[in-house]
Design goal:
With about 270 residues, this protein is an alpha+beta fold. The relative contact order is 0.12.
Length: about 270
């Protein structure tokens, strides 16, 4: 339902826009109105004109933060799907009520030849969730994987995480071998400036707009296919273990967007 109806949002004074409460799931989770296919994004790649979630997914900061949040809650998700876990326990708890509901309301009157009954519904739902979460683990295995997974041509102006045209060199950094899931492109020392050398293999791209964590930093002219960027430490702030996102937008001489790319980095005091 979230792509065209049955969705709610509210805004308290001096607060952020919040979505919720979550509505029913009759169009999701392998219900009789939806597919049992657990390996697809439905809202992200849908061309419906109200599918505004696409616009969030065009923002590399959103992609990176979504990846971080997924692995933050992943231990709780495991408790949902494990044998004897939250889903199994709730099926047992609701069993008598489910059977009674099934007897009281003949689902075949509403969905002829499609009604499955409480037990079958529960089985289908749990198996769907287990397959779905296994697939989600793959999509959230890296920021670039999630970006390419959610990519759609109908997005307003999508990023593509590729070094084919705009590539980054990050001197004085080391590889991220500490982050177990979705590692950053590089690690820098806390309270240190970041030098970024950008190569632009496109003659039409004459300048780069640079953003740090979604906020405009500066614009740079491309000279001999190169841009050298120094970002002071006061712009490189993040919570411990959280990534900082450096994103660039290439522009032609008319100011039109040519190519985009981004690199997530992380800070750590353990490097020399």
């Amino acid at each position: 339902d979230a792509k065209h109806k049955s969705r709610f949002a509210y805004l308290d004074i001096d607060s952020k826009l919040k979505f919720g409460p979550v509505w029913d799931f009759d169009w999701g989770c392998a219900s009789i109105k939806s597919s049992t296919e657990a390996k697809k994004w439905y809202m992200a790649t849908n061309e419906h004109d109200q599918g505004f979630y696409k616009e969030f997914l065009d923002d590399p900061l959103f992609i990176v933060k979504a990846t971080e949040k997924y692995w933050e809650i992943r231990p709780y998700i495991e408790k949902l799907i494990q044998t004897g876990g939250v889903l199994d326990s709730n099926v047992s708890y609701l069993y008598q009520s489910g059977i009674a509901d099934e007897k009281r309301w003949d689902r075949n009157e509403t969905w002829p030849d499609e009604a499955r009954g409480f037990e079958k519904d529960a089985e289908v739902f749990i198996q769907f969730m287990r397959k779905r979460i296994k697939w989600l683990d793959e999509q959230f295995s890296s920021d670039s994987k999630l970006l390419s997974s959610t990519y759609t041509e109908v997005s307003a102006c999508p990023y593509i995480k590729s070094d084919d045209v705009i590539s980054f060199e990050l001197p004085d950094t080391i590889s991220d071998d500490v982050t177990h899931n979705a590692p950053a492109d590089a690690v820098i020392k806390n309270n240190s400036a970041l030098n970024v050398n950008v190569t632009v293999d496109d003659v039409k791209t004459v300048s780069l707009d640079v953003y740090v964590n979604g906020l405009y930093f500066n614009s740079f002219e491309v000279l001999n296919n190169k841009v050298i960027i120094e970002i002071n430490e006061d712009r490189l702030t993040a919570l411990p273990g959280k990534k900082i996102v450096i994103s660039v937008i290439g522009r032609n001489s008319d100011g039109e967007t040519t190519y985009k790319n981004f690199c997530p980095i992380i800070q750590n005091d353990q490097i020399g």
